[in-house]
From TrEMBL:
PH domain ranges (all copies): 1-106
Source organism of the structure: Guillardia theta (strain CCMP2712) (Cryptophyte)
Binding-site positions, ATP: K148
Protein kinase domain mapped to chain residues: 119-243
Record Pfam families: Pkinase
Alphabetically ordered keywords of this record: ATP-binding, Kinase, Nucleotide-binding, Serine/threonine-protein kinase, Transferase
Transmembrane segments: none
Gene Ontology molecular function, alphabetical: ATP binding; protein serine/threonine kinase activity
Top-rank taxon: Eukaryota
Gene3D superfamilies: Pleckstrin-homology domain (PH domain)/Phosphotyrosine-binding domain (PTB), Transferase(Phosphotransferase) domain 1
Name of protein: Protein kinase domain-containing protein
Length: 243
C-alpha cells in the first residue's frame, strides 16, 4: 500500500545532518508525518515490482537504505526493515531526487558516497600535518578515487581560506590530460574532502629513484617534460601561476 506524501530536504538544528521531511499535504508548514535522517544512508534507483505495476502502482522507485557502521564498509543494508521506498511521478523527477538526496547525504557523511576502509593500511595513500589521503570507492559506480581528508579543527581561518582558494582553482582548471582532475569538493560539519582522480603510478620522484639507473633516460625525461610544459601552458592560459 502506498500513500501520497509531499517531501522536502532540510537539515537538523546544528546544520550537520540532512533530513528528508515528509508531509501529508502540499502545505509544508503543516505538521510533518515523517522525518528521515540521512546521516547513514545509501540512495539508489530501484526496479519496481512487476506485480505492483500490474495493479496500477507507481513505477519510478527510489530506495533509501539506513546503514550502520558495520554496513558502511560493506555497502550492504542492515536489514529489509531499514529500507524506505519512495516513488516519483516520472523518471526525470526520480533522477532529480536521487541527485539531490545523494548530494546532501554525502555532505552529511562522506561514507554515504564512498567506501573508505580506514582499517586497511593500503587504503591510506599519504598523510601530512593536517590531512590524510584515502583510497575511496564510489558506492554507485565502483570507481576508485583519492580522497584528501582535512580536519577542520586543525585549520585556522587563514588555512580554511587557502583550501577554498585551492578548490576554486581546481574548478577553473577542469579536465586536462596532464593535470590531476578534481571530481568534487565535499564539506561536512567536521571535515573538508577533496575528491581527486586516483593515479596509481606513484610520485614522480619515487619513479626516478626506483628506475634501473637511478635516473631517467634522455628520451623518457623529454616525454615527461613535454607533458609538464603542456600543463603549465594550459594553466597560464587561465591566468593561473603555479608556485
Amino acid at each position: 500500500m502506498w500513500t501520497r506524501r509531499w517531501c522536502k530536504i532540510g537539515w537538523d538544528e546544528l546544520g550537520h545532518t540532512a533530513i528528508l521531511f515528509c508531509y501529508h499535504t502540499e502545505d509544508t508548514t503543516t505538521e510533518k508525518s515523517t522525518a528521515i535522517s540521512l546521516e547513514r544512508v545509501e540512495i539508489n534507483a530501484l526496479l519496481t515490482d512487476d506485480d505492483l505495476l500490474a495493479k496500477g502502482g507507481p513505477a519510478y522507485a527510489i530506495g533509501a537504505w539506513m546503514l550502520t557502521d558495520s554496513a558502511t564498509s560493506s555497502c550492504m543494508p542492515l536489514s529489509i526493515d531499514t529500507r524506505h521506498v519512495f516513488y516519483a511521478e516520472s523518471n526525470e523527477e526520480r533522477e532529480a531526487w536521487i541527485r539531490d538526496l545523494q548530494w546532501v547525504a554525502v555532505h552529511s557523511n562522506i561514507d554515504n558516497g564512498y567506501i573508505i576502509e580506514r582499517d586497511e593500511q593500503r587504503a591510506m595513500l599519504g598523510s601530512g600535518s593536517f590531512s590524510t589521503v584515502w583510497k575511496g570507492i564510489d558506492r554507485n559506480t565502483g570507481k576508485a578515487w583519492a580522497l584528501k581528508e582535512i580536519n577542520k579543527d586543525g585549520l585556522n581561518a587563514k588555512g580554511q581560506e587557502d583550501i577554498r582558494e585551492e578548490i576554486e582553482i581546481q574548478r577553473r582548471v577542469g579536465e586536462h590530460p596532464n593535470i590531476v582532475f578534481m571530481r568534487e569538493f565535499v564539506e561536512t560539519h567536521s571535515h573538508l574532502y577533496i575528491v581527486l582522480e586516483l593515479l596509481p603510478g606513484g610520485a614522480l620522484l619515487d619513479c626516478i629513484i626506483d628506475s634501473q639507473k637511478g635516473h631517467f633516460s634522455e628520451r623518457d625525461a623529454l616525454g615527461i617534460m613535454s607533458q609538464l610544459m603542456q600543463a603549465l601552458e594550459y594553466i597560464h592560459s587561465l591566468k593561473i601561476v603555479h608556485r
